Input
Amino acid sequence: MATLPGIARPGCGAVAQMGERCNRTAEVRGSIPLSSTTTPPPPPITTAPRPAVPSSGLVPRYHRRRDALQVGMANDPIPAATLVVFRDRPQGPPELLMVERAKAMAFAGGAMVFPGGRIDPGDHAIATSPADAAARVAAIRETIEEAGLAIGLEPVPSPERVAAIRARLHAGDAFAAILADERLALNLDRLVQFARWLPAHAHMRIFDTLFYLAPAPVDALATVDATENVRLVWATAADVLADADAGRVTIIYPTRRNLERLALFANYGDAVAQARAHPVTTITPFAEERDGATHLCIPEGIGYPVTSEAMTEALRG
Output
């Protein structure tokens, strides 16, 4: 079983229980250093009714979109895309952009995740090449919505234009119409494929998620959307793992495995090189008996330094 040097982990990679968490939405205090506020295509998608609005009063963005929300049936995987945004530093490992999901959200409520979400019908309409174009479009769109960062837009829009684009997306305007109005094009090559995760849960919502890497725009200011997410941080992968082990934040199994992999890299270039050395394969965690206990595992040899965690400690997602 592989282990990650330099990160103290009990047993086979315990997921710490959620502890006390700072309630401020603009800034997080604790051991995570902050410097901002608070290869196959996806499977076909089919139409289903929109989920109910959470009782907390937080209204997810998909309730405000005019386009019908496209999801699978009860046990069908929901196509999704996620963007891991890097911010290199002169000294020390790169910082990554992460957001904390509102506790009321059905998926990964209260957990720290990378910006991302479902692939909408409009994402397919914007681009058809390469094969994963819709996922790349979704990753770019969701990062604008959730963090106010415009990655892959050309020419690079000003902060004021990004804020206006974000407001229109939150209001439900189609991304294609916004791009046309703003005379902006998408450079999908700015995103680098990193991973594809497809858990196999019974009686749980399943996402078929493509992960991408991208560098942060120069001097860009990220801000939390305060709808589906309640705070935003820039932090190193090792710091997020340490805070999870200490119970200060919650991370689900795929996020933990990806953070352990991301902690290997000294900069964005190193991450891209390793990603290209390991062609994307679909990762479906599986249960296996190891050392007298059931573990949740992923395959060896696909770039992940830790590939097993005791099932009793794994927070599935």
